[in-house]
Amino acid sequence: MTDALVKGMALILAPIYTRVLNPSAYGILAIASTVTLLLTLTLGLALNAAITRLYFEAESAKDERTLYGTILIFLLVIPGVLTLGLELAGDAGYLDFFRSVPYDPYLRYAVWAAYLGVFLDVPLAIYTTRQEPRKVVGITLFNALTLAAVTILLVVVLREGVLGALRAALITSAAAAVVSVLLTARMAAARFSWMLLKAALLFSLPLIPHLLSQWSLSVSDRIVLQGYVPYAQLGLYSLGASVAAAASLGVNALSRAFTPAVTAQLKREGPQGQVPRIGTFWFAGATWACVFVALFGGDIIRLLTPSSFHQAARVVPVLVFGHLAFGVYQLVTQGTWYSMKTITIPIVTFGAAAVNVGLNLVILPWGGIMTAAWATLIAYVVLAFTQGLLAHRLYPIPWELKRWTKLLVAGALAFVAGTAATGALTVSHIAVELAAVFVAFPLVLLVLAFWTPDERRWLRYRFVVARAALVGRVRLSLGR
Prior knowledge:
19 helices
């Protein structure tokens, strides 16, 4: 969830940053944000994932409250001690790894924002598992609006530049941490259970290498890029990645709703129930969203940013389809999560991360930022394929792979049709892209006989109901 918030706010704030920061400064901000994400994943020890899984194993409300209290106490103490250690190391000059981004002043903000950020995931995990979406949305909006307001104050009004953006992130993390601790404390018992902590850590600790490998897949390219390209190019790549992350937000939102529902469904019906069809609908939504962002992402950059940032549009489609491949990974890995054999997950993720970093190190000096984008796409495809094989061995789920193939074909053809809209950002340009997304994509699915007979009947019924409702409203308004 923290990752999604970082990506979402990076996208929302991009027009602000690009108006007051040059590409080089944007590159510095990208490195600091990457470090924050890395440390948040590490310091949190993936205990939010343990909440999501162990919730279904709790035998009573007392056990649930004890679990929440145990995790909250642990996170208050252990990550805090580790962060103090990082502060001492940074003061001594041991954390000055990046040219132009020293610990003092830049990375200090990143480190403390990361520690405070670990608390936000706890209530979000609880509410998500309980399927209380309004509370999830409320906390997310609070965090987003706070970050936007403080960023506008420090970066736009007070003109504090990169340091203002980092201070805004730290202040927002502090506010979110206070709210998150208070909310968790209300749901938790003031008890600490070594047994529950052990169960949580046995589930979550094997995920740390997995999460670090995911970090390597998604944002480590910024770290590698800063050693080979000017910070201005790094800034362009980071902006393109932020816009492409809109696809990731859609994919992750679907996944957060999908995972608890699948776990509950598998408990009731097993893998032969409705899970495969639900997975197909999930993948259909993710594919459509990714085609939309791939076509319109470059338009957004050209519309909302100065001309010095327009070259960032080149990397958007490649990175978007990398997010789609990651969506496939999230889908097929449900069997692995359900089996609770999480110790096997890091092996696959590490292999895909090694592919990403290896490709970047070998060919990046000759290809620049486009090479980094293609390396990320290839690595995500490798991750999805290998994780699918692993999950099938641990807990087979008969996914509807033929229908997934039809969705990929429809998405590819719709994207190709949309790229016919070249040149200036005109009404005809937008019309072609809209037609590709809203007409070509469903039309190809229809030609490929994607929909089953009962789904077609349901769609016809919903169309008739919607048309009748629309006609009724029109007649009512005319009658008035």
